[in-house]
Amino acid sequence: xxxxxxxxxxxxxxxxxxxxxxxxxxxFDFLVQGGHEVIEAxxxxxxxxxxxxxLWLKYFGEKRRILQKFGGACADLWFTYHSxxxxxxxxxxxxxxxxxxxxxxxxxxxxxxRRRQWTAKPGFYLNKSALRKADHxxxxxxxxxxxxxxxxxxxxxTYVAPGIDPGxxxxxxxxxxxxxxxxxxxxxxxxxxxxxxxxxVKTEGLTWLIRACGELDRQGQSFQLxxxxxxxxxxxxxxxxxxxxxxxxRFLGKIARQDMYRFYSAADIFVFPGIRESLGMVFLEAQAxxxxxxxxxxxxxxxxxxxxxxxxxxxxxxxxxxxxxxxxLLIDNDLRRQMGAAAKSHVRQFxxxxxxxRELELTLNSIVNRRS
Length: 372
Known about the structure:
By secondary structure, this protein is an alpha/beta fold. The protein contains 14 helices and 12 strands.
């Protein structure tokens, strides 16, 4: 298939990484590796486009450019990743309609509460229009599946479980020994976390983690906290960590995704609240390396973590259960190993990108064949 691929929220090679960008890139790469010709159709960002008149000029220019470029190129499919009220897909419906090719959306989100917010209302209706015009919708979140069924027929929606390539996140015994020696932690259990230090729920989540570790320290619990990531809130987080855990914390800075397996391997528990986390790819990565997880039970986290089997999910914004869950895994070596082994198996059984996206590929082929 010749596929025109588009991400309205941010281009594939945007400088600021995110879980959604990892997923979009994973789908793009999978389809390319499957022998399909996949072309990034545009780098137009539609984030809040309805409040940015200058972006509409760019939109019309991009639409004209794409139609001129691909008008006679016999593209088979337009594939949009992630359309929602903040970044509704405008190009997909317009271009696919003119080219008379199937139009699909992966991770379209339908949230009716947005129509009651005047700042989001235009985006709600633009996104709703795109979702209705799509020939097929794919989603990797159960809650979005239910919401989409309120808008379009169930036979036009397919659930695809979130996934990673487990081969990229194998436990590395050599890396574990090397890094733990660098950190001088000996047999002390390592709590590992990773996030971008943005002024949003990422930093809020790390704040909860640092405060929880401060409570564990006051209780006399032995541990070492290691945090990967960087961003504008680094200084504030370091100051907070100094207040609560002092010499028990180490900030690593930004780690390339392809190197993260080494740091997961060196740790004993992965902890990150995941406040309003859409997918939480880090939870899958950590589990693939054999780490049990502690997180808040909310949003997309339960899609990745099997509570009581591969980790412990606790109520949001409740410090005592959060601290208790971390402590339980710190002191119970057998439970930690049992959940870590289950986590590794869980990812390979249910969240292998190659298996899950093969179903996606088959559905795309079927859609194209029906149209032709």
